[in-house]
Amino acid sequence: MLDLKQDYFALFGLPTGFTIDMDRLEQAYLDIQGRVHPDRFAHLSDADKRLSMQWATHANEAFRTLKSPLTRGQYLLELQGVDPAFETNTAMSSDFLMEQMEWREALGEAREAADEEVLEDLSRRIRHANRTLIEQLGEELDQKRDLRAAADTVRRLKFLEKLQHEINDALTALES
Amino acid sequence: MALLQISEPGMSTAPHQHRLAVGIDLGTTNSLVATVRNGVALCLQDDDGKVLLPSVVHYLADGQIVVGRKAQSAQAVDPRNTIVSVKRFMGRGLRDVSHVETMPYDFVDAEGMVRLRTVQGVRSPVQVSAEILKDLRVRAERSLGGELTGAVITVPAYFDDAQRQATKDAARLAGLNVLRLLNEPTAAAIAYGLENASEGTYAVYDLGGGTFDISILRLSRGVFEVVATNGDASLGGDDFDHRLFCWILDNAGISLPSDRDARRLLMKAREVKERLSLDESVAIRMTLERGDEVDLAIDRSVFVEITRPLVAKTLKPVKKALRDAGLEPGDVKGVVMVGGATRMPHVQQAVGEFFGQTPLTNLDPDTVVAIGAAIQANVLAGNRAVEDEWLLLDVIPLSLGIETMGGLVEKIIPRNATIPTARAQDFTTFKDGQTAMAFHVVQGERELVSACRSLARFELRGIPPLVAGAARIRVTFQVDADGLLSVSARELTTGVEARVEVKPSYGLADHEIADMLRAGFENAREDMELRGLREQQVEAERVVEATMKALDADGDLLNTNERAALDAAIASLRATAEGQDSRAIKIQLEAFNRASNEFASRRMDKSIRQALAGQRIDDLRI
Q: What is the topology classification, in CATH, of domain B237-307?
């Protein structure tokens, strides 16, 4: 029997792994959502609506998790009992700490300059670094099966994501 | 009832009768009702052959309530009791409403939502809106010749939880069964998407009477997906009227017009604005109460100049929405124009320049939302075969969060998350032996609680006394397919479950709605009881019909004993429904729901497996 605790890869009938076929994921998601979505049950009873909402919620959460490389990587680690524990893990490599400082400095300068182009440029650099790390994460998870390294990469990606949010906020602030 | 309305490809949904369902565009300036008849979506007309119902409600001293065009003509003589653009007040506090000073109403600053003091007493915006909806319901029932199964009501995509809840409450008050709240731009896309059958990314630019919305939609493989929304809940055609109104006052040298003159001048401003979309120059003539004469002429270029900042203001949310979607203006394949205000040539021009293409204007911007809502209502009512249906994926417009220490917001559900959705976050106690915890639920993008909208406060009691930081309290946010939130909290460590469901504080409590409904039906109590009984009987019939069909299709999912139990449940529900006791039917329905729950789960399960099986077969074909 399928249940709401089932792992997300199984829900979409995908092999468990970092490298996934995005088209297939999307198609499976749409097929399932097409069956369970509350719009299919709008004229039916409250019990049906409740069941449908639970499943549609579950499908949305599963799709969201698998769609983004960062949350997918994080989820794979969790499935294997590794908690990337972003806040508490202090054993970060010195490389990463240096890198963090450099990025922070660059963001500080771009903010100071209040210049859209400088911010956009930084945003592009972060996107590039992001892509490289995602490739690395794929190797660590699927080929090398080095969970420690993968957890470290997830932390790096998490940091970049936060930085990207801050840049977007700074850009929004410039516009208003 | 608990079962699924799913059929195999090639099988039509049901041999049942056509369910009467409507789409309603509850607009700031005008409202409309539309339906699908013989496969064609059309707006329903009133007795005078008009489709637009001015969203105006006039409360008279003799207890009468007049809605629409007649109420509109009362604006000038009885402005205080003639409520226009009530949508602006839905789910809003007094401080959220702009231009309060120019409005002739007697506002009452109530907690959560502003109220209006009329000759018939204090009225909430929900009640005023319900009058408009009631008028449309009656129009539809007369025109279609029967009671409505349900309605899809549109709301601006940017409406927050308070505004959506208020809209749903108004519909309930008007005696409408809400099938779904639907974002206006999405409704417009449904109307356009079907007629053009286009795939790609689209922007829907909706400048209505009182609200501006921009939505970025992706249409593909029969799926409409809202990838980003943004907007300004207090910007619309009315603001253009207001600019023009101020220009007239300035140029005619009038400083403080009477309420009545102000109203007349605003109406004049609107008329002039509309004419300027066609003519290069328009004369403005009017005699005021004290004998002052207004005699002016305005060129379109002047109008364009004084309203340029308003047009520019619409482009900011457009940029934000594109950024959220990770897109450039050039990625957008088409721009759909919605709302009467998009008839203004300089609005079309500015949008065209921004996106580098001529916007789509081939459908009537006033009716396109209602038409789309009607098409969706027809689907939700179950009038189409499953294989002809499409799926609508929607997102939440504003982030939802909870207040943490220091007046900061911890976001639980980020904006643009696909709904329905649920997210949980764990919190802990900060004092030894703490047995209660207060939660403050907010909506908005800012980090400070004070800059967000407060939705609800609640307290979780009965936490076992433990040392600080030992208790684990899981707060779960659930947003349903209408974008409405419910929150629950639970203590995890001891297994003791204390649970609180929050109804956001701005909404009307269920008993308030019940009171209002009762007041409305006071003279027709029997009618109401009869209506209640009939509703329960219809529901029971529907449940039995659907269960029989489900058993035909999937009876093999039950063993002999289970089958017998369900058959017995059907028989007893049928027997009760033949009686006249609506409460007994209700109780029987609930019992039936429990009895058929397992069957529904198995059907859902089977359905999902089929979806996956279909997926694998597709793979093999490639």
A: Actin; Chain A, domain 4 (3.90.640)
Fold of B396-512: Substrate Binding Domain Of DNAk; Chain A, domain 1 (2.60.34)
ipTM of the complex: 0.82
Query: What would the pLDDT profile of A58-68 be if each residue is shown by its tens digit?
Result: 999 999 999 99
Least confident of A87-91, B267-271, B328-332, B536-540: A87-91
Rounded (5°) CA angle B469-B457-B498: 55
Compute the C-alpha angle B423/A34/B566, nearest 5°.
Answer: 90
B414: tokens are 């980020």
Taking the Cβ of residue A9 and every Cβ of chain B, the question of whether any pair is shorter than 8 Å is answered with no
Give the pair of three-digit tokens for residue A81: 């009992």
Q: Do A172 and B150 touch (CB under 8 A)?
A: no
Q: How crowded is the C-beta side of B101, counted as CA atoms within 13 Å?
A: 2
CB within 8 Å: A34 and B619: no
Active-site annotation holds for B482: no
Tokens representing A8 are 């997300």
| Topology, domain B21-235+317-393 | Nucleotidyltransferase; domain 5 (3.30.420)
Longest dimension (CA), chain A: 59
Beta bridge partners of B393: B225
Q: Cα–Cα distance between B450 and B469 in angstroms, integer?
A: 26
Q: What is the pLDDT of residues B442-469, one digit of tens each?
A: 888 777 888 888 888 888 888 888 888 8
Closest residue to B1, CB basis, from A13, A44, A172: A44
CATH topology of domain A8-67: Helix Hairpins (1.10.287)
Give phi and psi for B106, each to the nearest 5: -95, 90
Single out the residue of B61, B63, B75, B169 nearest to residue B113, CA to CA: B169
The model's pLDDT over B371-421, given as tens digits with 9 standing for 90+, comes to 999 999 998 888 876 556 667 787 787 889 999 877 888 899 988 788 899
pTM: 0.75
Where in chain B do CATH 3.30.420.40 domains reside?
21-235+317-393
Tokens 């007795």 correspond to B47
Q: Is omega for the bond preceding B414 within 30 degrees of 0, making it cis?
A: no
Residues of chain A within CATH 1.10.287.110 domain(s) are 8-67
Is B279 considered catalytic here?
A: no
Domain with CATH 1.20.1270.10 in chain B: 537-621
Which CATH code for domain A94-175? 1.20.1280.20
Where, residue-wise, is CATH 3.90.640.10 in chain B? 237-307
Q: Which residues contact B390 (CB under 8 A, 6 or more apart)?
A: B222, B223, B224, B379
**B537-621: CATH architecture:** Up-down Bundle (1.20)
Q: Reply yes or no on whether the pLDDT at B524 is more than 90.
A: no
> Among the options B78, B184, B238, B403, which is catalytic?
B184
> Is B479 within 8 Å of B485 (Cβ atoms)?
yes
